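hi!! sorry for the late reply, been swamped w classes. u asked for the two structures so here they r. pasted raw, havent cleaned anything up. first the sequence of the first protein and right below it the tokens
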Amino acid sequence: MYKWLSCFWILSLLVSCNLKETSKQLGETSVGDSEYPIQPVNIQQVQLTDAFWLPIIEKVQEQTIAFAIKKCKEEGRFDNFLIAGGQLEGATRGTMPFDDTDVYKIIEGASNSLISAPNPQLNQLLDSLIQIIKVGQEKDGYLTTWRTINPGKPPANWVQVKEGKRWESLNMSHELYNAGHLYEAAVVHYKATGKRDFLDIALKNANLMVKTFGAEQNQIQTVPGHQIIETGLLKLYQITGEVAYKDLAKFFLDNRGVAKDRKLFGAYSQDHLPVTQQKEVVGHAVRAVYMYAAMTDIAAITKDSTYLRAVDTLWQNMVEKKMYITGGIGAKHEGEAFGANYELPNITAYNETCAAIGDVYWNHRLHNLKGKAHYFDIIERTLYNGLISGISLDGKQFFYPNPLESDGLYQFNQGACTRKDWFDCSCCPTNLIRFIPSIPGLLYSKGANELFVNLYASNSATINLKSTELNVVQETNYPWDGTIRFTVNTAKPYTFPIHFRVPGWAQNQVVPSGLYQYENPNPSFPIKIKVNGKATAIDSKEGYLSLDRRWANNDVIEIEFPMDVKLVKTNTRVVENRGKVALERGPIVYAIEELDNQNNFEDIAISGIEEFTIKSGEEHLGSVNLIETATFTAIPYYSWSNRGVNKMKVWIDKK
């Protein structure tokens, strides 16, 4: 693995600098994630062996990280830190004020990779990248390279500057957005490696933020244009116990939509109303879900019921009126934004890859707070469809938007009809890099003495509950097959509940709302479960099958979810989907491509008595399962556009 790392071109950029410890001490002051009643089982405890997810993660580890580093080098992302620190001469490289974050996100993804696939060369490479970042940091902790290099000349003309001062254009400068990604990446790197160097850079910057922003007379009383610093500050709080970080995050949220002496940024930036009064998801979708994730953190940490009511209301609005069948969010190219209620166009759908990732982060927090399975219904739908569609099967090309239809002519993807290898704004490729290696951390969560099985994928995991340690092994061919074999091994026989999530699709529910419905639902509850070979009665808890018993070594649970091809219809208020249906099987949404249906693509229609055949093992699309009928072939939506420019549609006319 990582043969590309043998070329240590980056080491030639190293400069000598000694990182000093900040005053923030870790360990005894750490509060962890204890504010949440349910805790995710860390990827350090989960060894993935899955035939679906492991190849995707390994592709990112072995191909995409290297590819992104190469692109960052070519486009001057690393040079900017060295220019800012006086080690190189020149003007700012690149065209975006947030190019620094591509480097941070690569480090975050690579750090997660080190957990599942330790590699000394990759570890050393990250050390060198962190040293380069350190060079670009100003003495007081400030870190946004374009403004340090030439504060009067931002790389993008839409960033307005007057005097070239820090913070003067926070609606578009992305200075605080840069900081948020820095904090998130630094926390992951610290947890993965135990090293303080990157974390200390982040803490120095966060300390500057605490001094600069707040309610005091000598502080700046404004908010960031693009949210994410809030969740970053809260992650720093969780590992340091420094209350000032939590307070600043809440200050930014509490002052959003509050005029005072500043100009509001408007609905585009969710700055039109106080956050606890917002009832509809609006504006830039990525900014929105990052903010909702931070609001959920605050609800958990402070037990603030007004924050909790607000996120509940916003989540319900999104799931009932503004979410695509693929889990994608953000209907409009203009402003990369949510549309009006029930505005869900197909060919012009935006569905930014970053928004799908942010929505997973938000729903994961909601599950940790409430333990309800329907949050993982959204996560699963997004993961298998509208999120991994953002990356090609070879790991080197990317979608920024993810439409549900293509005519082969409309250049929806930043000037292309198919995936591109990079963008001037490459937030989506590097966001995929930071997110995909963390997927094993979504599989399980735990209470003090209970285990939640949230997603189904082959793996072996070691999990510490309050009174026992256990090893669990999942064996499955999910998502192509609904059979799961789950083996429990405990240090000693012990009584506790294991909750197995029942996917919404297995309960005749497309999403936890009436936005989509199955035309051909199962007539009963056909899920089968056995313990040690015997059919077992089960209790239901918030969408989970709960088995509360005395567990011992080699106890085996077998679950069978039926995987029939389902026809999905949309609420009639979604105008574009009237008279149309989509195909699903298990968690996978399907699409038709012209390449597979060259003679009749435009004329394909589905009848209510269609006979479907599953064809497995299609190597040309990564061993996917196809759905075939007498008249057409459908492929998993996430795999479309891997064979060149092609017409495609998810919603198909109904006969």
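now the second protein. again sequence first, tokens right under
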Amino acid sequence: MTEGSMMFNPDRPIESFHEDLLNRANLAKSIGEAILKSQTKDSLVIGLLGKWGSGKTSLVNMIEEHIMKISTEVEPEKRPIIVYFNPWNFSDQNQLVYQFFNHLSIVIGREDSSVALKKVGSLLKTVGKISSVGKYFPFVSQASSVSSDVCNTVGEATENFAQMLEKDLSGIRTEISNILKEQDNKIIIIIDDIDRLNDKEIRQIFQLVKSLADFPNTVYLLTFDKKVVADALEKDQPGHGTEYLEKIIQVPLDIPLISKSELERLLTIQLDKLLENIPESEFDRVYWGNVYQSGFKHFFENIRDVTRYINVLRFNYELVKDEVNPIDFIAITAVQVFIPEVYRKISENKEVFTRIATTSDRNKQEHKQICDEIIGSADSKFQKFLLGYLEILFPNLNTIYGAIFYDRSFERSWRVDRRICSEDVFDVYFKFSISDGEISQREIKSIIYSGNDSEKFSEKLLELIKNGKILRFLAIFPDHAREIQESNIVNIISSVLDIGDLFPSDNTILYGTPLRIHIITNSLIKRFSTENERFTILKNSIENSTRSLYSLAWEVDYLDESHGRYHYKKSETHEENLIVSADHLDALEDLVCTKIKVWAENGKLESHKKIIPILQVWKQWGANETEINNVINKVIKDDHNLINFVSNFISPVYSHTINDYVGTTTWRINFGLMKEFINLSEIEDRLNEIDPLNKFENMTDMEKIAVKLFFENIEAYKLDTSQKILPLID
């Protein structure tokens, strides 16, 4: 995103013609030229009338710019003097009139002005000081007493307060008028944002223009909402507020209403700036058209709506732009800005808006009622299109309100596209940050791009392990497999298999973490069309691995299953769809067997957390009894390795009754499998000898459960040797 598109667009008017997006430049030029060509020497009052957000100040700025441009071609003594006064900046009932004259005197009597204009400036300052007292002007809210305190508040006077009051105000005004009549400089006084003042201040401004400052050669350009001002004047002129206003405003100019097409063009330009660096592949134009036509365009009624929306969108989008679907974020931000109560209620009902419903879903009616209440909380002008709009963003509503159903494949698609309707992404749209344990899209892209260097990729994975994010990464990585360059696949597969044993256990899916690893390697290796290529990748990954053993054994054993080898049932996979051929699978088994032997010889195997499944596949692939017994003997001699060995034989059993909200986990120990590797009495004697439950406080929870299960159930197993696996404790 460019620097310009990151800048916020404050709710401010444009300042120059080059910012004009509403084709009002010609109107501004026409008004500016009409002011300069006006031949009257009398005071002229022009009113620019329009509601808030209609662009009054923007038009005034362009008028001023055009006048200044033309004035550069005129002799200095004939150039117009522009006085820009925004009463909202001086909103103080006792000081507003003073501030007006003080500001007028400064601009007119500046250093480069003629002697005559400097005189006018001095006289105007005097008028301002007198007017601040209030006794001469009934429209000033509170008359001030003649005291030294008042003198100090109105500014440094060259004469004392008593002398100022003795001056004839009418005479001062006459003197100012006489001087200005003889000048060729037209004084253009712009008073903006009058409708932002309170009623009393609005009346002050118009009485000022009508009675006190209607000097010759002056042109007043006033901007306001006619209804607001008329209502304020009505307080002093009951029933005649509009008539009173019409007497003051000699040239009323209604600002043309912005057309719907112009407003949409303005909105589109702002959105284009925001999204200019988003790849086309991430912006579905058909989907955007559906969002736009279904309701997005109906949120905007004036320029201020666009400005307010764009400001919120820019700020929030910067926080999460890599984590969300840009179209969905644009769409939900409109709800946030214009219907905040609906936005809040959507955020509080995640299940309603993200859960895939079925034909037999008993919550369907309940969810429909919630949606009806949410939509009903919006203003009637939004209710007309809100349901259709939300159905585009949240497809699940089509099931709640109709007969369209989505299978689970849509969940993955929505997650990949970072859609708001995805359960995994939904919260980001409302919290503007990712949850703890989640991985940002920026992190994912950084990891993917590091795939050109296997060591760097491994470092990224190790960092994820350290931060507790690796399991989440393994779960979502397949969504991004298509983003991996083919030249990086070898490095990534090699890294994942090399570090796989360091990954924590994932019990959310059958077979846990090893299956996650297989899904990653399988999704990538299938991108190679020839069997030789696939074999070479696996062969090199196994040969180069130094940190893992179980991951390698599991992966090759999974290939055994696809071939229907050993105890696995005959495979239904056609030979041409197998990852490797039977001969190459033999070679991979031999490679892993060699790795296991090396680990056994250097003493690393007996302490491996997954020693039993490794020994099982080793035995399956032809390891002799002596080789396995040598490893077991080493295990038995080491207290910690022994406890780890026992913990390899426990497994969880999950149960859930119809009345339970939370499932129950019990644990079993497989004495039958343990017996295949070692005499149970030998294990029992060693455990009694070391008394681990009382001596080893640093045992893991699984190790404690395993030892406890062993002691509590070994005698029962001896009595009933036919029962290989016993349910034990919660």
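hope this helps!! also noticed smth abt the second:
The CA atoms of residues 113 and 690 lie 103 Å apart.
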